[in-house]
Design a protein that fits this description.
By secondary structure, the protein is α+β, with helices and mostly antiparallel strands. It has a single domain, classed as Aminopeptidase (3-Layer(aba) Sandwich). 33% of the residues lie in helices and 36% in strands. The protein contains six helices and eight strands, in the order E-E-H-H-H-E-E-E-H-E-H-E-E-H. An eight-stranded mixed beta sheet has the order 1-2-3-4-5-6-8-7, sandwiched between helices. Helix 1 packs across helix 3. The longest helix has 16 residues.
């Protein structure tokens, strides 16, 4: 278990899977999410089993006040190059805009840098997801670049920003807090 200021990150269990199916069927949750099609419980169970055996992925359920509210994890974990892609979503919309995503990311950064010995943690975000971009910047992510018109969603092309935090930047930020 990983403890943030507000959230607790714990292993995903079979009991969590119906929540993911419900959240990933919600157009508001999917608006800026990498997946663009809802999934059923059988597919979610298949993903759950695959990710447990994938050495390049580490996934957690996000909990808040004891309730499962979303998911986070590292993908493309590369121990040789000491980098990984982080992702997260808060599925419970009633808990949006309460700093839980920022706390989740701060917790994942601490885990990635202190426990996994990563040097670079990066993410991809839809450029128009201003709320997400602001949250990522607040925990130290900086924009590295823009992939122009790379994602087709909602009947049009979207730009994707690549953002990252390097270990020395994170250390400096920790000393200032």
């Amino acid at each position: 278990m990983l403890y943030g200021k507000k959230v607790v990150l714990r292993p995903i269990t079979h009991e969590d899977l119906p929540n993911y199916v419900r959240w990933l069927a919600d157009p508001d949750v999917l608006m800026y999410f990498g997946k663009y099609l809802p999934i059923d419980l059988d597919r979610e169970k298949e993903w759950y089993m695959r990710q447990r055996d994938d050495p390049s992925a580490i996934n957690f359920a996000i909990t808040y006040e004891g309730e499962h509210i979303g998911g986070t994890g590292f993908q493309h974990l590369n121990h040789r190059e000491r980098n990984a892609e982080v992702g997260l979503f808060i599925g419970e919309k009633s808990l949006w805009d309460q700093g839980l995503g920022q706390d989740t990311l701060a917790t994942m950064l601490r885990y990635g840098f202190e426990q996994l010995n990563l040097h670079r943690i990066y993410l991809r975000v839809f450029a128009e997801n201003e709320r997400g971009v602001r949250a990522y910047e607040k925990v130290g992510f900086v924009t590295e670049g823009r992939l122009r018109q790379v994602a087709w969603r909602h009947g049009r092309w979207h730009d994707i920003l690549i953002m990252s935090v390097l270990y020395p930047e994170w250390i400096q930020r920790q000393s200032q807090e």
